[in-house]
Amino acid sequence: MKVVTGVVGNDVHVVANRLIDISLNQRGFEVFNLGVNTYLEEFIDAVVETDADVVLISSLNGEAEGWSRDLPVLKSKYSLKDVIFVIGGNLAVGEVKEEVIIPKFKSYGFDLVFHQVDLNEGLDRLESFAKERL
Amino acid sequence: MSLLQREREAILNNAYVDHFDFAEVESFIKSASKDLFISHRFKKQDKILVQPRGGFPTYDKVFKLYDEFKNAGVDILPLTIDSNTRLNDYASAQKMLRLSEENDVDMLNGYPLINHGYRTTRKMMVHFNTPVSLRHGTPDARLLVEIALASGIFEIEGGPITYLLPYSKNFPLDKAFIYWKYVEKVCAKYSELNEPINRESFGPLSATLQPPAIVIVIQIIEMLLSLEEGVKSFSVSFSQSGSFLQDIVTANVIKKLSRKYADQLGYSDAMINLVYHQWMGAFPRNKEHSESLITTSTVIAGLVGADKIITKTRDEAFGIPTKESNASAVSKVQYTLGILRALPQITDEEEEENLSREVDEILEAVFNDSADTLWRKVFNAIKKGHIEIPFSPHIINNNKVITVRDKKGNIRIYDKGDLPLSEKSFRFEREKLSVGDDKNALVDQIIKDIGIML
Question: Which residues of chain B have pLDDT under 50?
């Protein structure tokens, strides 16, 4: 399974990005890592180019929401309905309730939303979600 | 007119520079007080020099910071440059400097040296008559270094690898080599006029589980790139690893091998110094704990025989420290160094032998590249993954090496990626590790190892 991953926006959290890369590789995914400081359009370009099954966006500095708003537009522009969209990390600054934040990001078009969820737990859930889809 | 001089004139003919007077700058450096040169201070070898970090947007705030540092007994003053200037964006720096001056709030995370200019900044340097070290993180530091030297700042930190790979995603590495070559040449040129200008490499790299072999390789390479342009005083550095043993082994090997390679390549007249950075990773939020961490690293700096220590503060976890907290760290470190008497000489032959072999193996592969100049060999080595920095954001970085701590806390290479290490060297690393092939356990272990001081 092919995964495009990266850190969205002007966010340089390279440690998290590298750990996601290592974990995905170890779980047998084929990883296309766009690294830190990646714009949303670049993720979409990479999906089209690589024919990826999953897009895993991470965000740690609180910029996630601003960038995610454009996702519905981009998703409808290309036919990406079979692609699994995942976002995880620190999805908001300050204290936010999961009941609020998860539906919000789902409305942007994400299938899985992980706010301050342990990396391995998030990837376990991604794997079972992908299995159900098949 | 020489090619270098023509390039210098082009660089200094910049809208943000108010007429650079080459002759005046040269005569200033020629007659500058010896006390401004860290290379001169290093020669005394009477103590480990203490240098904090710090820089504020306005002249007045830096002046007050220096006053505070001097009262705390500082040896070397820092001048940290703001991030707009680091990216050569002098227009934004100018705007933010004005706002900082008018509203008495810090709108920049450092001192915008280009905007202040060398005539103004020099007044402060001459007033304090203490060596100052330029701390930045700029891939194209040509203008910045010209202005720093003209201001009386005679130590320049950085290098084409250490100021690029840990900081930037896509600034071209080959350009960084060329721009730093200019810096080395200008430093070398001025070194003929008075005491030598000291260049310092930035050994902490990405400050996250860095294997000592890679740190030392990169330190030696940046040293050689500098010495080959005529620099006569160079500091190699590394940061606290989290393992007492590994710090001592790293120091012993870096001292031995930097001298060996410098001599081998015909630079035996160059002075090589060792700089130790207090813990550069995530700091505890508990301030008593961070004070204890600072004291512990001071003791290690003593044990490893550093020539200079760069300090952190108890407020590290919370952002840029106040001048008071910064100065209090200096005073504490000075006190600790003062009471460290009759330190033992520690060595570990087996560890040192393996680390030396690893460094030699990687450097041999670099030197064996078919390119015609050292920087091109190094450029190719990085492209091939013969050298890589774990946790670098740069697109050229190979991102294959995985490091993790062994049971005792030493950083070991779990996956060597494309590093040209022999079977023997790599086996030494892997044998120390108990992490098996459970994939999830490895990542959990890495996360724990990164946060080792929390």
Answer: none
Residue A97: the pLDDT is 86
The token pair at B58 is 């306005």
Please list every residue in chain B whose beta carbon sits closer than 8 Å to the beta carbon of residue A17.
393
Digit-coded pLDDT (tens) for B359-395: 999 999 999 999 999 999 999 999 999 999 999 999 9
Same domain, B302 and B192: yes
DSSP state of B305: T
CATH number of the domain that residue B23 is part of:
3.20.20.240
User: Which of B86, B135, B142, B314 is labelled catalytic?
Assistant: B86
CB contact under 8 A, A15 and B395: no
In a domain, B165, yes or no: yes
Do B300 and B405 share a domain, yes or no? no
* ipTM of predicted assembly, 2 dp: 0.89
Q: Which amino acid type is present at position B271?
A: M
* Cβ neighbours for B267, distance < 8 A, ≥ 6 positions apart: B224, B227, B228
Decide if A15 and B444 are in contact by the 8 Å CB cutoff: no
Q: Same domain for B331 and B372? A: no
* Residue B322 distance to chain A (closest CA, Å): 24
Place of tokens 């060792």: B274
The b/e string for B198-235 (b: 16+ C-beta within 10 A; e otherwise) is bbbbbbbbbbbbbbbbbbbbbbbbbbbbbbbbbbbbbb
The SS3 of residue B205 is coil
Asked if residue B366 and residue B318 are part of one domain, the reply reads no
Domain termination site, one of B274, B308, B339? B339
| Phi, psi dihedrals of residue B216, rounded to the nearest 5° | -65, -45
Single-letter amino acid, residue B25: V
Range of the domain at B227: 3-339
Could you tell me the fold of the domain covering A2-133? Rossmann fold (3.40.50)
User: Is B196 part of any domain?
Assistant: yes
pLDDT of residue B437: 66
Asked whether the beta carbons of residue B391 and residue A26 sit closer than 8 angstroms, the reply is no
Q: Is residue B433 located within the same domain as residue B382?
A: yes
Instruction: Supply the pTM of this predicted model.
Output: 0.96
Nearest C-alpha neighbor of B377 from the set B169, B160, B140: B160
User: d(Cα A120, Cα A20) in Å, to the nearest integer?
Assistant: 9
Length in residues, chain B = 454
Q: Do B328 and B423 fall into the same domain?
A: no
Rounded to a whole number of angstroms, the CA Rg of chain A reads 13
Q: State residue A10's pLDDT score.
A: 87
User: Strand ranges (DSSP E) for B212-316?
Assistant: 233-239, 271-277, 308-310
B421 and B323 part of one domain: no
Q: Say yes or no: A61 contacts chain B, CB-CB below 8 A.
A: no
Q: Name the domain count of chain B.
A: 2
Q: What is the pLDDT of residues B78-126, one digit of tens each?
A: 999 999 999 999 999 999 999 999 998 899 999 999 999 999 999 999 9
**What are the tokens at B322?**
């106040």
CA dihedral B252, B258, B263, B266 (to 10 degrees): 180
Quickly list DSSP for B365-395: HHHTSS-SSHHHHHHHHHHHTSS--TT---T
Whether residue B191 lies inside any domain: the answer is: yes
Same domain? B73 vs B220: yes
